[in-house]
Design brief:
Strands 8, 9, 10, 12 and 14 form a 5-stranded antiparallel sheet that branches. A 4-stranded antiparallel sheet has the order 13-11-15-16, with no helix packed on it. The protein has 3 domains: 195 residues, no CATH class; 92 residues, no CATH class; 107 residues, Immunoglobulins (Immunoglobulin-like, Sandwich), CATH 2.60.40. By secondary structure, the protein is of the alpha+beta class. Strand 3 and strand 4 form a beta hairpin. About 2% of the residues have low confidence.
């Protein structure tokens, strides 16, 4: 505070002071291609999931699209099953089953979903294939990016992004094809007559695919996906995860193939950094479990290749558990620890919910009936002195074959049903029919009288439903 003369004193920072940014500049990751057991599994699942995704909308069933979520008609077609808004409980069940399955598989084997089946992982892998096909391997890509722009570089980049955009657009088109019949959608695209919503969602989903898989890649997994943040809650020390055996690998160091590592005081890790180069999120698994690890096991395949070349045993990086690596659980007991209480509770709860969901779906009656009273005329007297109430029967035929129904009414008095036309309903259709119900006046009490409608399919008497209503008398 003391400053004679009022002069401003400039204080220079100490040599040890350093300026640190809150945000790190992203360094582009060039994942190295790898082959091996896990890479084969990953490739197989990529091809299988995309065969299902791109192929299902084109599969026909009973003259219509096999899988179609028709939001306009408010009907979900899943092969021979037709679900209506009233069946929303089954969709809720699917979501609950999916969540519990994720918990179960994560508790057993870590981020299996992320590493092998997550759309972000799948499309990033496909985009990487295209990138390697156009620009070459990791080394060639890095060299190309360091070059100044020229015709060759411009041509390669344009080709790569053109293929990316084409795949992303086709992905957006296929996604919308699950909600708008894809043959109709194809015709609209061909004639440039797409509706505004179809156009929006094709462009939106295509742009999201192009941006996430082509540009953001590991950033989605590291910063945008919430699963990376709470996955640790589902892990325990007996969860199978991708681990580095530090006891075997350290101290690491380069050496020739003919050198005895024990004589030089080295572990099996040759510090080649292959495990880092093949990692799609750019982490070093040798630093221990990290939330950025998506469990793809590319580092296992890469390390095993190096161990084979050096003549060392495989498994320096492997699927194991914290307890096994620490020596708390013997290696031959790791698989048995899968059936621990936590996993068994998850499996039991999941099994019960799946069973209840399947039973509910199998017992679901593909026929629904709503009774709507005619509010304009509550009750009237007809020629023979009986009282008449008018109803509208809303019949929902959830099966895909047409049905004709018969209806009768039971109540405190003998009642007669008068129909203006047969109750014939086409498959997967809802129709409304006017129905008149008559009853003798002397058998009814004043006010409302409980009645029950019984609707039965003529072709299939087991297909029936009952619904309560009231009959007004005066």
């Amino acid at each position: 505070m003391d400053n004679p003369g009022g002069k401003l004193k400039v204080v220079k920072p100490e040599a040890d002071d350093a300026e640190q940014s809150l945000y790190a500049i992203r360094q582009k990751i060039y994942p190295r291609a790898v082959t091996g057991w896990f890479a084969t599994w990953r490739t197989t699942l990529v091809l299988l999931t995309q065969l299902v995704f791109y192929g299902l909308p084109w599969l026909m069933w009973n003259g219509r699209q096999a899988v179609l979520f028709d939001l306009v008609e408010r009907k979900f077609y899943i092969f021979g099953l037709v679900l209506w808004p009233q069946d929303f409980i089954f969709l809720t069940g699917v979501l609950v089953i999916s969540a519990l399955s994720l918990f179960l598989f994560t508790a057993i084997g870590g981020r299996l979903w992320c590493g092998y089946a997550c759309p972000q992982t799948v499309y990033t892998e496909i985009f990487l294939w295209i990138e390697r096909m156009v620009e070459g391997d990791r080394t060639k890509q890095m060299r190309l990016d360091k070059q100044g722009f020229g015709l060759r570089k411009l041509g390669l980049k344009a080709t790569k992004h053109g293929l990316w955009i084409a795949l992303a657009a086709w992905t957006g088109f296929t996604f919308v094809g699950y909600f708008t019949p894809i043959h109709v959608l194809m015709g609209e695209v061909a004639t440039f007559s797409l509706g505004p919503w179809e156009t929006f969602w094709i462009l939106f989903y295509g742009f999201a695919t192009y941006g996430n898989a082509g540009w953001m890649r590991e950033q989605v997994c590291k910063y945008m996906c919430p699963y990376a943040r709470f996955q640790g809650v589902m892990f325990d020390k007996d969860t199978l995860i991708v681990t580095y055996d530090a006891a075997r690998g350290e101290p690491r160091g380069a050496r020739g193939k003919s050198v005895d590592p024990k004589a030089k005081g080295l572990g099996d890790c040759v510090d080649c950094n292959i495990c880092v180069q093949v990692c799609p999120t750019g982490i070093d698994i040798r630093r221990g479990l990290q939330y950025e690890c998506i469990g793809c096991a590319a580092c296992i395949d890469g390390c095993n290749q190096v161990m084979d070349k050096m003549g060392y045993g495989r498994g320096l990086i492997r699927y194991s558990t914290e307890n096994a690596i620490a020596g708390v659980v013997p290696a031959d007991k790791v698989v048995k620890r899968v059936f621990r209480p936590r996993v068994m509770i998850y499996a039991t709860v999941l099994g019960l919910i799946v069973t209840a969901w399947a039973i509910g779906l199998s017992l679901r009656t593909p026929l629904k009936l709503n009774i709507i009273r005619d509010r304009a005329t509550l009750v009237r007297e007809v020629e023979d002195g009986r009282l008449e109430n008018i109803y509208r029967l809303q019949i929902m035929n959830a099966e895909e074959r047409p049905h004709t129904y018969r209806v009768h009414v039971t109540g405190a008095a003998p009642m007669e049903v008068v129909l203006d036309k047969p109750l014939a309903v086409a498959g997967a259709t809802t129709m409304t029919f006017p129905v008149r119900v008559r009853a003798p006046m002397e058998s009814l009490k004043a006010g409302s009288n409980p009645v029950q409608f019984h609707l039965t399919a003529i072709e299939d008497p087991a297909l029936s439903v009952n619904e309560k209503s009231v009959f007004f008398a005066r």
